[in-house]
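**User:** Everyone, produce a chain:

**Assistant:**
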Amino acid sequence: MEPKKPIANSRWLIVLLCACAVIAAQAQEQLSYRRNALSTVLVYHPEDEFGGEIFKAFDSLPVPDKYDDHTIEGVRVIDNSAIWGVQRKDSGYYKATYGHQLTAAELKANAMHTEKLLNDAELGKKMVAKWFGFSGKTVSDATFNTSLIQQRGQYNANDVDVEVALQTTRGLIALSDAGEELLNNTFVLVNDITYVTAEQEAAAAKVAMGVIGGIFDAFTGGHAGRDVANLGGQIADSFTGFKVKTHSYLYQLEWNDSIAAIFYQFHYTDEPDSAKVQAFLDDHTTYRVKYVAHEYEFDKKSVLKGQYSRTELVRTICARSMDKNIVALGKQYEDFKVKTPVYQVLDNGKGRVEGYAAKIGMKEGVNENSKFQVIQRVLDPETGKTTYKYIATVKPKKGQIWDNRYNAVTEQADGATLPYTTFTKVSGGEILPGMLLIEGKYRKITE
């Protein structure tokens, strides 16, 4: 018997499947957006009983997914025990202890000394080097490129071709746009976490994750801090009531037209040029980070419903504490705000819109009282400059807020199994997938 011939419609089925794949890819592309870039730094306290556990928790946590990971190896772990210069008598920084909150003067001293430490370690230069793909085994063969900027900013390759862009006004505007949208929105977050256990509440708490300070790993990326942290203390199996007091200090990469001019004219080269590369390496003052904000978080009533190992317990509490501070810092400092795209327009199957889905939730501080602007990013095809247009205002739908906090599913928390948060429109125009949600008002809206 001859095999059955494929039905005539099978060819059209293949075409249809291919078309669906293209549409799906285009939809995914529409949901791409420019995240702020973030590097996180831990201050390791070897003098603290639970310092090792805190370090392991930090080391295992990724950068929050609403930010691009701009982690800089070599400037990730700081050894507080090796620091001098903040307190007059003792080594290290002002540390919050049980019964003693850091004063405004102590917070300022910690913050500004940290800024100096980060700049002494040339963190700003390393961030710029990462943005521009600086690579090479020697000065004579090292080069830069704009691949990461093109990828994260969704720029056309010609828009960020430095050699071409420097020759035209449009090109200069495109480079300026990349600097404002990407480099200027590059941050480093340094966390100071003081912990208190139920067994220790009657005594001074031990400080577990540092306020700032100390010896960084090598410029090329060492693991000294990681190795010593693994020698940290133990938490008893009966460990309960672990609470953290988290001080987070936020720093921003300084990038403006003057700094960009120095970089593009004297340092950037996409072909081997030892003079420019050496000039970049020898420049110790142009590329810096600045202190912009501080946030403090402590939840006296924090209770975890699930059953955790001691390691997972510390990781969960530290993750949630740092997430709360990130949310608060975004409300305090607008450039640090989280943007997230509208994932899907929800309808009743008959064309009537019933809400809007976004992959954001309790981890990002969403609650029933939250309000978000829906904005549209507009890229001027003539100049390559980005502007933002107001579209609508939305709020979360009661009972439809996604609990995406760390380990929420394990705890079987309400909303943990939702795939997203559902929003309803308060006012404004048509909302489409790929438009951005941002909490509160956004000053960069031009229309």
